[in-house]
Amino acid sequence: MATSDPDTVPSAAESRAEPESALATARRQLERAAATLDIDPNVVERLKHPQRVQRVSLPLERDDGRVEVYTGYRAQHDSVRGPFKGGLRYHPDVSEEECIGLAMWMTWKCAVMDLPFGGAKGGIVVDPKDLSTEEKERLTRRFAQELRDVIGPMRDIPAPDMGTDAETMGWFMDAYSMQEGETIAGVVTGKPPVIGGSLGREEAPGRSVAIVAREAVDFYGMDLADTTVAVQGFGSVGANAARALDEWGATVVALSDVNGAIYDPDGLDTNDVMGHEERPGMVSGYDAPETLSNEDLVELDVDVLIPAAVGNVITEANASEIRANMVVEGANGPTTFAADDVLNRRGIPVIPDILANAGGVTVSYFEWLQDVNHRAWSLERVNEELETAMLDAWNDVRTAYEADEDLSWRDATYVVGLQRIVDAHTARGLWP
Ligand SMILES: NC(=O)C1=CN([C@@H]2O[C@H](COP(=O)(O)OP(=O)(O)OC[C@H]3O[C@@H](n4cnc5c(N)ncnc54)[C@H](OP(=O)(O)O)[C@@H]3O)[C@@H](O)[C@H]2O)C=CC1
Ligand SMILES: O=C(O)CCC(=O)C(=O)O
């Protein structure tokens, strides 16, 4: 187990080339937002760096007896408002820089939602599709063991992200609990409900994307019944966003998985298309009138574009080709800093990830409350409280957006979140 020096990570100014890292984008967004607020530059400097990054080596005995060693990370960015919180990603592109950038976004996301959590993110550099279920379980248990010293229900609470799911969280919780000698449900969220998971957590990030898209459509005087939507990625976030918008009357014309996209100008039946959870790779194999590439999907002439897969899909190279009337970010970091600028100048609103997909961490907070209090909530209660929390956050951001015509939606969202973090740091006193 090793603790990396976060200062070895390149500064925002050092990595301006696209595709840029999540960390470079997060730092440039922070600098931009800080410039619009009267924030102590020392606080901004501190917020550009994580508190800690844990790097671990994870030996895994493969099913054929060979041992392979994987690398895992947990980046803990800021905990001024409460325990660190954020997902675990299993993907070949996971890196220290990516985890730090994603952890920064979790800090702002929790603050925008006014949750008593800070920001963290972790992951393993692995393609989970290359592992059997048994191998994935062994790797997850080893990860929990290696992270034991830095996580816990009052310290740092992981959750699912790309490549992980409720089953993964169940193994993680069991491994941690076995080491502690008692069942500690609150160490992770996004678990199966039978062991303390919350009903509605799986659907929550996609549901919040749909709620925010619905509000944004209304804000711009459009009607959901006349709205066309394209969704990139059909996993936990994309499938649930697409299905909720479909159910509420929008026409979902395009969907995709890693292999490509399907398109029907008359609308796809989102419940008939199998998602990543049911079977990865089934979207591109669906019998639809047209197939497209993921790149083509992003440039479709639709009312709402929802990138809900990987980062950096809207870049300086394609930002001028985007024909959607608005972008609602389901994935974390789908728009590069330079692309954001192009879209702003073209008058295409981008509702940012740290607001739109924040339903995931919000229901994680509800799950943590249920675990700590040993009381399960009904699905109706979860969805009602999620709706209220999302509308409160949307209204806070909308108020900031309407108060200053120079702010983009991302700037306005940062203003809301960053101010809460700065206020908390100020109230607790500066660092010794
Ligand atoms: N899960 C959560 O709680 C939250 C996740 N997020 C963010 O949402 C995004 C998606 O996460 P999640 O839904 O959990 O992930 P999943 O692993 O559940 O699903 C990912 C989906 O994206 C597709 N995909 C993978 N790579 C690409 C690619 N290069 N181009 C196009 N599609 C691709 C996958 O296709 P295939 O099925 O073929 O693999 C799958 O449909 C990530 O950015 C994540 O950080 C944000 C908030 C909460
Ligand atoms: O539910 C959580 O704690 C975090 C989810 C997450 O990783 C995210 O919102 O990006």
UniProtKB/TrEMBL annotation:
Residues 198-429 form the Glutamate/phenylalanine/leucine/valine/L-tryptophan dehydrogenase C-terminal domain. The active site is at 121 (proton donor). Residues 1-24 are annotated as: Disordered. SMART domains: ELFV_dehydrog. SUPFAM superfamilies: Aminoacid dehydrogenase-like, N-terminal domain, NAD(P)-binding Rossmann-fold domains. GO terms for molecular function: oxidoreductase activity. The keyword Transit peptide does not apply. InterPro entries: Aminoacid_DH-like_N_sf, Glu/Leu/Phe/Val/Trp_DH, Glu/Leu/Phe/Val/Trp_DH_C, Glu/Leu/Phe/Val/Trp_DH_dimer, Glu/Leu/Phe/Val_DH_AS, Glu_DH, GluDhGdhB, NAD(P)-bd_dom_sf. It comes from the Archaea. Transmembrane segments: none annotated. The record marks 161 as: Important for catalysis. Keywords: Oxidoreductase. It holds the Pfam family ELFV_dehydrog. Homohexamer. Belongs to the Glu/Leu/Phe/Val dehydrogenases family. This is Glutamate dehydrogenase. It comes from Halomarina ordinaria.
